[in-house]
Amino acid sequence: MVTSWAEEGARKNPGTVIKTVPAIPEEDLQDYSGAYTETFNQAPSGDLAFENIYTPEKIRFSEQKNAAQGVVQTTMYSKECDGKISGLTETYYLKELGHKVAQNLTGVRQAYKGRGLGKMLKAKMLLYIRREYPDVKYISTGNADSNAPMLSINQRLGFKKHRPIKVYKLKLSHIIPPRV
To answer: Which residues of the chain are under the pLDDT cut of 50?
Structure first.
């Protein structure tokens, strides 16, 4: 199924190039940070509405921090004929935990949805993991229970709910009085 998703995605998107990199190339960094911000903020967050902005500096800081900690980061992203980044996915691998890979954000920009890019990126990354890390037995990922499109993809891939995560939001002004 994973191979067929990768092939189907390539057929449906003939002018789209998939790049696989350990760090975002300088020429794509600005657009990538915009794509990351857009796709991250598309994910449903229920009553915890918030917006994150991922600047090129934040992207570079994260890459450098991961490298310093021995985490192998792999980013795969789709690039359109016009040079725009349309979708992305990322994984993190720590050699000491050689049996496991964490797959974080997978997302497609709003303007490019409906072409199977999310499925294709997820499938191509899974094939990459199989090829590059043959000892990996588990892939962890996560998404909101209200994110039906990504839940559907993950369920069809065989992901099972393992450990629910609860996220809370509180206002510090209710706990810590303002300074005078």
So the answer is: none
